[in-house]
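Researcher: Quick test of sequence recovery. Tokens follow.
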């Protein structure tokens, strides 16, 4: 039973790693690499998200999921905070990846807090 919970968390960490790679590549793929603020935001948050996902894959700690949740929320609000909300490509990339990263991390925290749900 505990093994299925661990496997579930690992899949959530892999999902965050995939989202991190997508975020890192998004300035080139989606076409906002020439705009400094959204591109650097995507690269920095992508590196942090990926590093935390790799750390969680090797040695799990709950705080990593909370930080990933905060990074997801940051991605959602950053277009307005940093002022690149006029760039539709960067805006929606940050929002979509932010919502997905926050949802995956919230799901991982839920699994940690409610292990009986896997019984």
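Model:
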């Amino acid at each position: 039973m505990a093994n299925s919970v661990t496997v579930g968390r690992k899949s959530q960490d892999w999902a965050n790693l995939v989202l991190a790679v997508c975020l890192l590549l998004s300035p080139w793929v989606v076409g906002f690499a020439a705009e400094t603020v959204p591109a650097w935001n995507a690269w920095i948050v992508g590196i942090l998200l990926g590093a935390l996902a790799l750390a969680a894959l090797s040695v799990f700690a709950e705080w990593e999921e909370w930080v990933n949740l905060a990074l997801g929320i940051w991605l959602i609000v950053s277009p307005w905070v940093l002022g690149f909300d006029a760039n539709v490509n960067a805006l929606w990339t940050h929002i979509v990846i932010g919502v997905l990263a926050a949802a995956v991390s919230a799901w991982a925290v839920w699994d940690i807090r409610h292990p009986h749900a896997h019984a």
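Residues 2-118 form one domain.
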